[in-house]
Amino acid sequence: MSAPEQTRLARRAMVRLIAAAAASPALLAACAGAPATPTTPTSPAGRASARQIVGPAGTPTDPDLLHPVVPWPLTLEAAERRTLRALCDLILPADGASPGAGAHGADAFIDEWVSAPYPDMQRDGAWIRAGLAWLERESRRWYHVRFDALEAEQMRVLCDAICDVAAAPPELQAQALFFDRVRELACIAHYTTAEGMADLGYVGNVPLAEWSAPPAEVLRRVGLE
After folding, report:
1. What's the rounded mean pLDDT across residues 57-84?
2. Long-range contacts of 140-144 (CB under 8 A, 24+ apart)
């Protein structure tokens, strides 16, 4: 049997073990149960790690758009941020065009998102914090180290079980939805930066000295001529 075949078989076996372990009451309470009944994140006033971002705030009618300020304290713990940063780098790793999403600050974007005092963001916060706790638990269960200390291949083994909502077993659906949401937010964070837009080849959002209407052929094609 070739080395790649052995790796695939080992990863399949690991996925089965992870799925079986996920059925335990402790893990279901840590991840699957939390998103089903999302809770409001702990009040920032009671968290030692909460911090208020300060800087130029502008005014409601004249905001400082060049130096935006997050008007609420961030709520993810340092350990959660480490796990999240490693996961974002796994989802969008560094290449020749741009840095990895985690190294590029996707975890900071997601922290700002889930800390926002709005119901949708707080629901996301419940999902994401439970999912991060599950990743940490499984990392220590199988490899005896933190998730962010794993080798890339070990991270992939854990995430293979949850990276596809349609393919994930029923007992890992909550974790798969967590992974799907982090992937979406990491992509939003990464591809709205200058480096991410350059990676996509996006040429918009740039001031132009002049503007010419689309060619007649293009207008005809879209039915606007």
Report:
1. 80
2. 141/21, 142/14, 142/17, 142/18
